[in-house]
Amino acid sequence: MKLFLKGERCYTEKCAIEKRNFVPGQHGKTRKQKLVGYGVQLREKQKVKRIYGVLEDQFRRYFEQAERTRGITGETLLQLLERRLDNVVYRTGFATSRAAARQLVRHGHFTVNGRKVDIPSFSVKVGDVLQVRASSRENAAILHAVEEVKGRGVPEWLSRDAEMGAKIASIPTREQINLPVQEQLIVELYSK
């Protein structure tokens, strides 16, 4: 399945899934995997982990936090992952992929509420203002991403302004998180 991990490359014919949509190896084209039960649940969890670029221990902590919070656990888990600073930078269009957004955040190109934040897992709240630092406004990677993302648009839970900034308008709902994920399978997997 295409997860759009490589940024703009995933929108061209150079995408690996477009070239070879089968598993590697001699028998990749002919052998079909049969996934049932645990395999389907594990595949779904791995998909979400790779989309957001989170390791197992960190993902487990997000799940435990979502479980403690009121509401539907699967939706809360996706909301927690969606509110990560590197994901917000990607969603607002300051980076072409989540990996690029993570690197830009680590290099200190962004401020949240006027303070420099260089932790990709920083969780933004409603009302937080994200800005590109003044010294980074001419950064080639950020300018390229802004041009590249004009067709993609910004989600409704974010509002982007003209001066290289964005505001978190609300917590994202499940309808606004447009990922091909069945979060209920992840909840079932961790509930065993």
What can you see in these coordinates?
This protein is of the alpha+beta class and 192 residues long. It folds into 2 domains: 7-81 and 179-190, Ribosomal Protein S4 Delta 41, Chain A, domain 1; 85-168, Structural Genomics Hypothetical 15.5 Kd Protein In mrcA-pckA Intergenic Region, Chain A (Roll). It contains 8 helices and 5 strands; from the N terminus they run ααααααβββαββα. The protein has helices at 16-19, 38-52, 56-68, 73-82, 85-92, 98-106, 140-148, 183-190; strands at residues 110-112, 115-116, 129-132, 158-161, 165-168. The protein has a 5-stranded antiparallel sheet, covered by helices on one side. Helix 2 (38-52) crosses helix 8, helix 3 (56-68) packs across helix 4 (73-82) and helix 5 (85-92) packs across helix 6. The mean pLDDT is 86.
> In the CATH scheme, what's the topology name of the largest domain?
Ribosomal Protein S4 Delta 41, Chain A, domain 1
Q: Beta-strand level of the residues, as a percent range?
A: 5-15%
Number of helices: 8
Superfamily (CATH H level) name of the largest domain: Ribosomal protein S4/S9, N-terminal domain
**Strand sequence of the main sheet, in spatial order?**
2-1-3-5-4
Question: Runs with pLDDT <50, length 5+?
Answer: none
| General form | globular
What is the structure about, briefly put?
This protein has 192 residues and is α+β, with helices and mostly antiparallel strands. The chain has helices at residues 16-19, 38-52, 56-68, 73-82, 85-92, 98-106, 140-148, 183-190, and strands at residues 110-112, 115-116, 129-132, 158-161, 165-168. Helix 5 packs across helix 6 (98-106).
